[in-house]
Amino acid sequence: MTPVLETAVAPNYLNETHGIRSWLLTLDHKRIGILYVASITVFFFLGGLFALLMRLELLAPRAWLLSPEEYNKLFTMHGIIMVWFFLIPSIPNTLGNFFIPMMIGANDVAFPKLNLLSWYVFNLGGAITVFALVRGGVDTGWTFYTPFSTTYSTTYVTAAALGIFIAGFSSIMTGLNFIATIHRMRAPGMTWFRLPMFIWSHYATSLILVLATPVLAITLLMMAVERIFQVGIFDPALGGDPVLFQHMFWFYSHPAVYIMVLPGMAVISEIVPTFSRKPLFGYTFVALASMCIAVIGFLVWGHHMFVAGLSVYSAMGFSFLSYLVAVPSAIKVFNWSATMYKGSISWDTPMLYAIGFIGLFTIGGMTGLFLAALGVDVHVTDTYFVIAHFHYIMVGGTVMAFLGGIHYFWPKITGRLYPEGLARLSALIVFIGFNLTFFPQFVLGYLGMPRRYAVYPIEFHMLNVLSTAGASILGVGYVFPLFYLVWSWKYGKKSGPNPWRATGLEWTSDSPPPKENFEVTPVVTGPPYDFERMREELGLG
Amino acid sequence: MTAALLFLAPSRIAAEYDWLFWILVTICGLVALAIATFIVFSAIRYHRRSENELPPQIRGNIKLELTWTVVPLIIFMGMFAWGATLYFDIERPPGDATEIYVVAKQWMWKLQAPDGRREIDELHVPVGRPVKLIMTSQDVIHSFFVPAFRIKQDVLPNRYTTIWFQPDKPGKYHLFCAEYCGMKHSGMIGYIYAMEPREYSLWLAQGGAEGSLASTGEKLFHQFGCANCHHFDGHGPCPDLKGLYRRQVLITTGATVVADESYIRESIVDPGAKIVAGFTNYMPVFKDRLTEDQLVALIAYIKAIGPEPGTQQPSSAGDVPQGYGAQPGITGPGTPGVSGDQPKAH
Amino acid sequence: MAEPTVSKRTYFFTFLSLLGLTLLTTLLGFLDIGSLNTAIALGLATVKACLIAAFFMHALHESRTVRVVMFAGVIWLLIMISLTVVDFMSRSW
Amino acid sequence: MAEPATLILREQFRTPVQQRETATLGMWIFLATEVMLFGGLFLAFTVYRMYNPAAFIQGSADMNIMLGAINTAVLIGSSFTMALAVHSAETGDRKLLTAFLTSTMVLGAVFLAIKFTEYYLHYLDRRVPGPGFSFPGPEASRAEMFFVLYFIMTGLHALHMFIGEGILFSMILRNRAGSFTAEYHTPVELAGLYWHFVDVIWVFLFAIFYIEGLHLHGK
Asked: A281 with A338: CB under 8 angstroms?
């Protein structure tokens, strides 16, 4: 039996069954992960298209391409689609779905049917949102602030809210599934402190998903009831308090930021050790930092409301807690850096994305310190400073991590290698384009350009042109991987089970893995990131 | 404009703000630079030289971990304390500030001085005097943002929020709406003109007359029959409004509330909400019968009723002593005064 | 699994206690004791909820993990309500 | 009696105990999400109750305590029969299981019937928020918020009851098909958890909507 023959015919999750039905009705977490990749790719490029149109409009200070109404709808739809239909499911539902069971040595998630249902529910929510978009769009901003959303907007607010409401159930199902899986499905010997950091971070993410998402659901429901029946809940004209809406909205939406970035941290915590060939520095501290972020992250939502009419004392409390939640993020950055120190660092594409992530996340996190400082927040909140800040976290952080993770896990998912040179080039393009797009926005914000402005005073012109120039470069950087990854699925070099010499259980299985993940249930005997085991394989034994 | 904003802070708050801001930029910039240098250094210095390398397997160091937990925490606490102090300064207006009433609506700012001057999307103020803005919205949430003064405050319907500034340098400063408020959000822009006192009085002299805000309020007070029940001798069927402003009021539920602008407003539009202890509520609901502009005038009048009827109330109108109530109201050049406003269809 | 988790007897006494507490809640509600009314109503409701959880829902027999999940739900609810209410209460300070 | 054929061990699990514990954990996590879902409404209630104490107490005094108390008793009774259903499942008594599930369903239906009677009475009293709303006394405008929250919260609870009835019905069908044994009856336990949870929510709704204004009766 020659090796070539073996890899050619080895049954795996991709070739075991064929046809559309076998995909649409699959209960295999790996296939569901790929279904999610397809869905979120569509939403990502849709949301990206909106962003590009917005940047084009902002090329000139006056309305030259779009009317203010169209611009308002574009930033709303960009926000809604990117937040709920790309960022939140981006890493957990694709890489998380695929690799959580593999990393803990299980052959599937706890509730496979729920997993598939979650994908259908997600697409249903997306379809309804896109329907709202096609019928005329929404112009409330992704934050749906009342009373504008309940009383004044004449656009498809209810339909969009319904789409998000439904997608929320998909989030809840995924979070529930992951928690149950991580608690109950671990292989023998896989104790909590032997779990890869990827699992810890996803566990923290799932906690937030299940505890925060229901609050969004009920908030949107109340908003819709108010809008449809014109009874008072949040509208002050009807006896309500619009600040209550903001409390409820940010009780979800601030933790949601951690839903988006924790999985990014999960991926980086895998890539950095593998490509430094060193265990993750301060494993216990990084693991606990994830949990701290998940818990303290629930106590800080008020920092979105410092100028919204929050009481001064309440604002002080929220500011204080916001600084506390910055500590675990700092701990993570320091530990990733320390992991690289004295390592054996390869410059493969995933590592380039990881390095980019650490740098950009650091800038994003540190500008968060500005926004958490009460007095400083007053001037820069609701300006482009905030836009730049959260794009450094969401795009510079999560999207970089997603791309890094896709490249890192690509050989495991497809059994093929992507073209390394092209991939490095596009990583570089993304990094340059990103900084050119968003760094000028920090300056714009400090100079006082408010967000959500379709037209703007002339003094902000130059920086906006720079930003738009960056956006076009960024766009190219995102289209590249789409093409070469699809190409390499068929024509890429065969990778073998462990091209990176990584340590996790997922790399002990074939590439692509068999349907049941492992031939025999693995038994775990040692700590994670155990590169010592490799000594013999490396010829150093 | 841009350069002025960056380097010439036109108010004390703005100058203090810039201090904190640039110190934060320096600290964060240095740390970010250090991290970036360390990572790039590691990536180059420890670049993998052969496929068979196995570097020393270091798993952690407790002392280091504690250091980079505690040190950032201490720095963060410093940032928190400084930021909170500045915030208190921004949020708490000095007692002698000129009070400007701001009514925001889609998509314009209506600003009224105590002497009755009305401006739209423009505000003329003399330098060197604190200005307090008492703001409400007629429709959705807006946000009053003057980048040059580093101040911003959301403007909410059915409630008064306040912010203050004191321009120290003359100039023309942008006023933006910073909370998305619908189609022409980006058009809800205006200017604050800070003028030398001499120019300011010249400018004042150009305008036409209109009654002071409080005297408009007094007219409304009689027109709507408020005076029939609210007597100033303490014997009427309704609470005596003398010296009400800023006083602690005991209400029927046993709680006390401070009679600030929001309380007075609530007591007019929805009298039953917080009834003064010992009184029965006979008052009609004025919810849809008064415009925001009329409410503002009424509140200015009620605030102006000092402890003795007829005397001027010192604390709220302190900074316009010579003109208050007596001086003819003046409208800014080129800005027609608006009376009432268009009904808003929901 | 031959041995049932909770005996019929316990179920029956739980049921009786719940009915008794409902009656007590209702009767005490008729007294005019100011804000104590609310406190008593909510306090007794909490006792009833605990009885249902402990016996009907077998919470006492569940694993530690499940108990953590229960407490997490309640604690997060309290976080949301208390931090929001603090804002509304301290606005006029 | 144990019938091995009905004990389905799904392929992702290694042992039946693991399968059962995972399912129970999943259900409890779901209930935690439900706590947060209703939690948002309880938060809104707390805030507006704080704003308008008099209106909320008067609104509560407007409730029909007789129907409310009876309904609470009915729902507690249904929880009792549900607990007994789980008991019968544990002892493998299929006949009793069907009997108890059916009585739980009947009691649930009685609850819903009474609840909708109440809604109808509110409708006759013009207590339904909207243009037709009316409430005696000076608190009318603020009492509307009480009724908005009342209808949303009890309505969402009633929706959960309907879903619960559906779940119970499917349990009865599965039991008649012989799916449950003393060894395998996890679905019945989970249905029980759900049903009891809906009961817990009602206990709090009863306290905040019916009890607070009772002392105003007869005044």
From this structure: yes
Query: Residue C56: how many CB atoms within 10 A of its CB?
Result: 28
The structural domains of chain D, with segments of one domain joined by +, span 16-216
- If you count residue pairs, one on A and one on D, with CB atoms under 8 Å apart, how many are there? 101
Q: Which of A221, A401, B225, A277 is nearest to D148 (CA)?
A: A221
| pTM, rounded to two decimals | 0.90
Please report residues of B whose CB lies closer than 8 A to that of A236.
156-159
pLDDT band at D8 (very low <50, low <70, confident <90, very high): low
Which of C 61-80 lie inside 8 A of A, CB atoms?
A: 65, 72-73, 76, 79-80
Q: Do D41 and A222 touch (CB under 8 A)?
A: yes
> What pLDDT is stored for residue C31 in this prediction?
87
Beta bridge partners of B329: B210
Q: Do the chains contact at D206 and C22, CB–CB below 8 Å?
A: yes
What are the structural domain ranges in chain B? 2-42+60-91, 98-208, 213-330
Chains in touch with C (≥3 Cβ pairs < 8 A): A, B, D
- The reply to whether A331 touches chain D by the CB within 8 Å rule is no
Annotation: CATH topology of D16-216: Four Helix Bundle (Hemerythrin (Met), subunit A) (1.20.120)
Contact A302 C91 (CB under 8 A): no
The ipTM of this complex is 0.91
Contact (CB<8Å) D211/C25? yes
Which residues does residue B191 pair with via DSSP β-bridges, in sequence order?
B122, B174
Determine the CATH number of domain A31-534: 1.20.210.10
Token reading at B80: 């928190």
Cβ separation D36–A214 shorter than 8 A: yes
Query: Which architecture, in CATH terms, is B213-330?
Result: Orthogonal Bundle (1.10)
What CATH number has the domain spanning B98-208?
2.60.40.420
Question: Which 3 state secondary structure label does DSSP give B264?
Answer: helix
Q: What digits encode the pLDDT tens for the residues D52-111? A: 888 899 999 999 999 999 999 999 999 999 999 999 999 999 999 999 999 999 999 999
CB of C86 within 8 Å of any CB in chain A? yes
Cα A377 from Cα A389, distance rounded (Å) = 12
